[in-house]
Write a structure and sequence with these properties.
Layout (H helix, E strand, L loop, with lengths): L2 E8 L3 H18 L4 E5 L4 H7 L5 H9 L2 E6 L14 H11 L4 E7 L12 H4 L3 E7 L7 E8 L5 E6 L4 H16 L4 E6 L5 H17 L4 E6 H10 L6 E4 L1 H14 L7 E8 L6 E7 L16 H13 L4 H16 L18 H14 L1
Parallel strand pairs: 1-2, 1-3, 3-12, 5-10, 8-9, 8-10
Antiparallel strand pairs: 4-5, 4-11, 6-7, 11-12
Helix pairs in contact: 1-10, 1-12, 6-7, 8-9, 10-11, 11-12
This protein binds nicotinamide-adenine-dinucleotide.
Nicotinamide-adenine-dinucleotide binds next to loops.
Length: about 375
């Protein structure tokens, strides 16, 4: 039986970068190292043009039935004026909500060949490999009340509510500790317990979870503001960072800049294990958007999309060895000096096209 991949290329550069992943998945199937059945759907503007919605019910059902969903990117100026409920991003939000994807994993890996593209000094980021685990469905972005009220005296009051229940903190904590066991065995939990009650509870629950279920993993706590500072001072001290929705949003964007380019950053969003099937819902996507400025030119960097597929192999299919092969193939390609335009920096090399970069990575995979 093959792994069922539901592929949503989306808009802009989406189909261009997704095509390179399909080549790699088909290569693994042909090689016999794993078997993938690829089914394709529409999301974002592409879905709106075909069905008048940002993702159809039929494609949602396919996403639900798949072993993993791969999404490239949605959006673009063509759909700037469509009704709010059917804007391209609504497709992405529906996938996250309906598949109950509560954990967002964003690795920040700095390939030695690209260390000079970072805004930090080479020795601070060369070989960096950290993972931010962000709670995705709770906290201040969703808590009620959430409103702007009129105070009647010429003033208005805006209210957002930060809410976390025990189970939400436990399940995200569990993901972080489990990940750490497969990495360098260290978790840094981050909140603001000095000024927020949700931070006090977060700290207590993570500590209890650690003591009861993961005593073998090293746990430290850092206040979120201090962690922000440490991320740009000495980022290599971190392995897995676990934090809430708001702090995770900010800190993962900071971490992403450590690596140099948007075209290099994968992500995963995971749900809970299904008690009956033992499988978990998961969506894998690059951090970048649909890049309308370069769409159709064949020059987008496919590495973030390919690395997202690598995360699917690791976290949905337990094919860590194949995921390692992808990571090594990307590193080897970069070590040879091969670059797409976005990661070329000041060098005078001729940039590769999307297809050429995909083929170069495939060649490394075929070689080893
Ligand atoms: P963007 O990530 O699409 O592009 C930002 C810049 O990075 C652009 O100059 C682009 O050319 C470059 N870039 C991005 N990915 C690249 C790649 N793989 N290779 C080379 N260069 C790359 O962000 P934006 O311009 O703010 O947004 C464009 C559209 O994408 C908007 O409609 C936005 O809503 C949407 N968007 C979608 C997602 C998503 O699908 N998850 C995320 C962010 C933005």
């Amino acid at each position: 039986m093959g792994y069922k991949l539901f592929v949503l290329p989306g808009d802009g550069i989406g189909p261009e970068v997704m095509a390179e992943v399909e080549k790699i998945a088909n290569f693994f199937t042909k090689e016999g190292s794993a078997s993938f059945e690829i089914e394709k759907g529409l999301v974002g503007g592409a879905a709106y043009d075909a069905h008048g919605v940002a993702i159809s019910d039929a494609d949602m059902a396919r996403a639900d039935a798949a072993d993993a969903v791969l999404l490239a990117a949605v959006g673009g100026p063509k759909w700037d004026h469509v009704p709010y409920e059917v804007r391209p991003e609504a497709g992405l939000l529906r996938l996250r909500k309906d598949l109950k994807l509560f954990a967002n994993l964003r690795p920040a890996v700095c390939y030695p060949a690209l260390a000079d593209a970072s805004s930090l000094k080479r020795d601070l980021v060369d070989g960096l490999d950290l993972m931010i685990v962000r709670e995705l469905t709770g906290g201040v972005y969703f808590g009620e009340p959430k409103q702007i009220i009129d105070l009647g005296n010429g003033q208005q009051r805006a209210i957002d509510t930060q809410v976390y229940d025990t189970y939400e903190i436990e399940r995200i904590g569990r993901i972080a500790f489990e990940l750490a066991r497969k990495r360098r065995n260290k978790v840094t939990s981050s909140e603001k317990r000095n000024v927020m009650k949700s931070g006090v509870l977060w700290n207590q629950i993570i500590t209890r979870l650690h003591d009861q279920e993961f005593p073998d993993v090293m746990l430290e706590h850092q206040l979120a503001d201090a962690l922000g500072m440490q991320l740009v001072r000495a980022p290599k001290q971190f392995d897995v960072i676990v934090t809430d929705n708001l702090f995770g949003d900010l800190l993962s964007d900071v971490a992403s800049m450590l690596t140099g380019s948007l075209g290099m950053l994968p992500s995963a969003s995971l749900g809970a294990y299904d008690a009956q099937t033992g499988k978990r819902k998961a969506l894998y996507e690059p951090v970048h958007g649909s890049a309308p400025d370069i769409a159709g030119k064949g020059i987008a960097n496919p590495i973030a999309m390919i690395a997202s597929f690598g995360m699917a192999l690791r976290y949905s299919f337990d094919l860590g060895a194949l995921a390692d092969r992808i990571d090594h193939a990307i590193a080897a390609t970069l070590d040879k000096g091969l670059r797409t335009g976005d990661i070329k920096g000041n060098s005078t090399v001729t940039p590769l096209s999307t297809t050429q970069m995909g083929n170069a990575i495939l060649k490394e995979l075929q070689a080893g």
